[in-house]
């Protein structure tokens, strides 16, 4: 069973998958390890590692530290550039930023990374990445030099997500981005989830369990939290997110 098949099997069992994004630029080694242990013990289904364009030079060392305690659940890289690849992970989100028109992020970086991923034997999960307007300029928007999809135009998101599916991608990721002023709207998640037949990942700016629950109920296959856990290891909060997101429990 591939890592992605394992993630989908967990989603099918629990209703919606609960993923936690750990950014090594925002957490030190001790916090990364402690947060990972808490996530494994209190209901997370996977750890995403990365997410920053200004990644730490200790990426390889830190991902191996996380893998050492995350062995019970999948560890998946969420890369910001081609330097964020490691054989220590179980898989990598092979992202194409289909919401933008920057060719470097549509295919340029992917062509550079593909041979390394193949040589490492790392499982790629082809993912159409859709950045959604959040009310403020995020790091992703600034660094990628792309415009996000308008948050009040779900039909535009639907068309981009369907294009990603027709291009053969395994899933789509609706993201408000790091530092989001507002989350991806529930209405957009529902519209996209109803329109495509591939899994939908939703993340960015989710700070309360009830907000995560609403996105699970809207049809997201996987809900991602991240910044809400930075600076603290709150096992009660992790459990609350797990209970809210796992709709079949």
Set out the fold topology:
Blueprint: H1 3-14, E1 17-22, H2 29-41, E2 46-50, H3 59-69, E3 75-78, E4 91-96, H4 103-120, E5 123-131, H5 139-144, H6 154-166, E6 171-175, H7 186-195, E7 200-203, H8 209-217, E8 222-225, H9 235-245
Keywords:
249 residues; alpha/beta; TIM Barrel; eight-stranded parallel barrel; 9 helices; 8 strands
Tell me what you see in this structure.
- The protein has 249 residues and is an alpha/beta fold.
- Helices cover 41% and strands 17% of the residues.
- Strand 1, helix 2 (29-41) and strand 2 form a beta-alpha-beta unit.
- Helix 2 runs parallel beside helix 3 (59-69) and helix 8 (209-217) runs parallel beside helix 9.
- The longest helix has 18 residues, at 103-120.
- It is globular.
- It starts with a helix and ends with a helix.
- 49% of the residues are buried.
Summarize the structure.
It is built from nine helices and eight strands. The protein has 249 residues and is of the alpha/beta class. It has one domain: FMN-linked oxidoreductases (TIM Barrel).
């Amino acid at each position: 069973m591939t890592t992605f098949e394992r993630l989908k099997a967990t989603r099918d069992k629990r209703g919606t998958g609960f993923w936690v994004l750990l950014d090594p630029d925002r957490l030190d080694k001790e916090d990364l390890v402690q947060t990972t242990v808490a996530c494994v013990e209190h209901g997370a289904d996977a750890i995403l590692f990365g997410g920053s364009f200004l990644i730490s030079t200790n990426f390889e060392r830190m991902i191996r530290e996380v893998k050492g305690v995350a062995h019970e659940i999948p560890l998946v890289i969420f890369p910001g550039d081609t330097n964020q690849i490691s054989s220590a992970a179980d898989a990598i989100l092979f992202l194409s930023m289909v919401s933008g028109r920057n060719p470097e992020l549509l295919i340029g970086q992917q062509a550079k990374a593909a041979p390394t991923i193949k040589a490492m034997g790392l499982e790629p999960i082809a993912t159409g990445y859709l950045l959604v307007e959040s009310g403020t300029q995020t790091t992703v928007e600034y660094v990628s030099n792309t415009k996000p999809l308008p948050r009040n135009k779900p039909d535009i998101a639907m068309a981009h997500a369907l294009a990603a599916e027709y291009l053969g991608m395994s899933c789509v990721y609706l993201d408000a981005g790091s530092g989001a002023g507002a989350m991806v709207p529930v209405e957009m998640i529902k519209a996209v989830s109803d329109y495509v037949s591939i899994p939908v990942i939703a993340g960015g700016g989710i700070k309360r369990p009830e907000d995560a629950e609403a996105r699970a109920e809207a049809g997201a296959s996987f809900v991602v939290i991240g910044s809400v856990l930075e600076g603290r290891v709150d096992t009660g909060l992790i459990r609350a997110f797990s209970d809210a997101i796992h709709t079949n429990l």
